[in-house]
Write the structure tokens for this entry.
Amino acid sequence: MRDTIKKHSDFGTRDDGAPVFKCALFMARDMPTKFPGDARYGIMAPKKTHKRAVDRNRAKRLMRVWLRANEELMSPERDYVFIVRTDILTGTLKEGTNCVKRAIKKLNSFADGTATWVPNPALVQVRGKKSKKKA
């Protein structure tokens, strides 16, 4: 069983340019591990998507079950971060494990260099002053 990411700073930033896998149940990212040979995973269930603590805890519990089923696919040199979405509470075991399998394989292919990822320029946040459109 892998360790979990506990520190907020270890989850990474949203605009660091890392590849993201998106599905209806969650979003997944990966990054190089801070401790070689001791790769970890983290699960985020924000209050913005799940208002009640019961729902956030259930979402994280479902995500852990799906991750345990696909743990052998996880690279030992990568840390994985999963951000749950609202639809996760209606997801089935089969649907969830298949989605996690696709996410891990896709993120591993980005890390290996067998696939390339180009960020959507419309979604990349530009730091600094906001430009105003002229009408």
Observations:
- The radius of gyration is 16 Å.
- The longest strand covers residues 26-32.
- The domain at 3-111 is CATH 3.30.230.10 (Ribosomal Protein S5; domain 2).
